[in-house]
Amino acid sequence: MIQHHPTEQTLLAYATGSLPEALAIVTATHLAQCRLCRQALGTLEATGGAILDELAPVPLSGDALNRLLDRTDEPAPLPPPVLHPDLPAPLNRVALGRWWPVGIGVRYRPLQTAGAAWGGLILAQPGRSLPKHGHEGRELTCILSGSFADGHGHYQAGDLSEPLTDHDVPPMVTGGAPCLCIIASEGMRLRGLLGRVQRLIG
Questions:
Q1: What are the pLDDT digits (tens) for 154-176?
Q2: Extents of the domains making up the chain
Q3: Each residue of 95-113: pLDDT tens digit?
Q4: Can you give the pTM of this predicted structure?
Q5: If DSSP states are collapsed to H, E and C, what string results for the chain?
Q6: Which CATH architecture fits 1-202?
Q7: Which of 26, 42, 112, 192 is the most core-located residue (most Cβ within 10 A)?
């Protein structure tokens, strides 16, 4: 059972389309698995629609109707092709780079997205952990399989981690199976030796 969900602020940003693409993909991955969050999102979207209905009407340009009619003959856009049938929607249609080792027992596969945030898949073996790090903006992680724990809680498949403070206790894989996650961040500050390397290379 899913126990961890995005904050209302993140769901609202997703509903309004203001989340960076990488963060939106992580949120959408959780939404595809979480009925409660889909219901909450529907409420937010309905509230936004009601607010729009109360706004004063804005006059259209003189050729608005003609431009709309010109588009009625255009074919409907096709959905993006399935690129990764082994991944859940919507990740199965998102472009991904190659796997890169980022430590002993940890690999990273970047999302090919636009915008300020970065994201990707992380596959970590049992007992392995990510480095201690801080955040600059939002960081979202949706667990696809396996589980991990940090100073904020224990997360299993379908859960979404949205830490509001830094990772003083680094996320560590729990149980006997590897943990596969999709992560996105607006900025990460590594600590320790990796942090010094990060500052040196900018």
A1: 999 999 999 876 656 778 899 99
A2: 1-202
A3: 999 999 887 898 999 999 8
A4: 0.82
A5: CCCCCCCHHHHHHHHHCCCCHHHHHHHHHHHCCCHHHHHHHHHHHHHHHHHHHHCCCCCCCCCHHHHHHHHCCCCCCCCCCCCCCCCCCCHHHCCECCCEEEECCEEEEEECCCCCCEEEEEEECCCCECCCEEECCCEEEEEEECEEEECCEEEECCCEECCCCCECCCCEECCCCCEEEEEEECCEEECHHHHHHHHHHC
A6: Sandwich (2.60)
A7: 26
